[in-house]
Amino acid sequence: MVPKKITTHILQNMKAAGEKISMITAYDFSFAKLFDRAGIDVILVGDSASNVMAGHETTLPITLDQMIYHASSVIRGVSRCLVVVDLPFGSYQSNSKEALISAVRIMKETGAHGVKLEGGEEVMESVKRILAAGVPVMGHLGLTPQSIYKFGTYSVRAKEETEAAKLKSDAKMLEEAGCFAIVLEKIPALLAKEVAENLSIPVIGIGAGKYCDGQVLVMHDLLGINTEFKPRFLRQYLNLHEPITAAVEHYIADVKSNDFPSEHEQY
């Protein structure tokens, strides 16, 4: 039996049925194909590519063209899951017209199923304009990495009542505008629980506790490729760093000793 293709409507039904939503980042064809076949519900082509693929300190440097390249690669690897693409820093904040142009480019040039952008009330005009064009939008509140220089820290957000109240207001605003889901990053679990219970759309958490409607992790963190990033919310399901390093060291040794290729490995 061919597995059902995940759509925004399916995600809505999953929330209504109490079925948790699984989401992971991917940036290329090969890993996207693996994750899709494993049964992941949503792949996020994250602007975290700026960190894990390009080696930048923050998500800010990655460009729209680079996001389109990664998203196009991912789309060619999937047949079942929903693919959402981050609008990168600078592609939607200045005005809603630019935001729409950026979103349309992603949809037309990649074949993705929706876009994600950070912020609440301050980007609402852009959100509404993108949605009015028929492009599905996923919101992102709490710790918003594109604003890291404003925050000055990656610590937990919305611990104070004022910021918590704004987050709840922004979440409701995003839902009412027509967003199909919202990511909550690094906020208190009970606040995330309150938001998830008060919204009809799915709430996906990353460092936001167990009460969200689903969870998302960066693939390099989950698979143990990146060993430097170890926040409390990360569960590392594999330690690929060590076996990959060992395999390459073995290969180097075999080449140096002329053991590879053997007679059976040549023509």
What is the compact description of this entry?
With 267 residues, the protein is α/β, with parallel strands linked by helices. The protein has helices spanning 8-17, 29-38, 49-52, 64-75, 96-110, 124-132, 148-151, 161-177, 189-198, 219-222, 241-256, and strands at 21-25, 42-45, 82-86, 114-116, 137-142, 181-185, 203-206, 214-217.
How far is it from the N-terminal to the C-terminal residue, by CA? 42 Å
* Helix content, binned percent: 40-55%
CATH topology, what is it called? TIM Barrel
What count of helical segments does DSSP give? Answer: 11
Biggest sheet: strands side by side, in what order? 1-2-3-4-5-6-7-8
Shape: globular
Q: How would you characterize the largest beta sheet?
A: 8 strands, parallel, barrel
Tell me what portion of residues adopts beta-strand conformation.
5-15%
Order of helices and strands: HEHEHHEHEHEHHEHEEHH
Secondary structure category: alpha/beta
User: For the CA atoms, what is the radius of gyration?
Assistant: 20 Å
Q: How much is the average pLDDT?
A: 96
Text of the CATH class = Alpha Beta
CATH superfamily membership, which one?
Answer: Phosphoenolpyruvate-binding domains
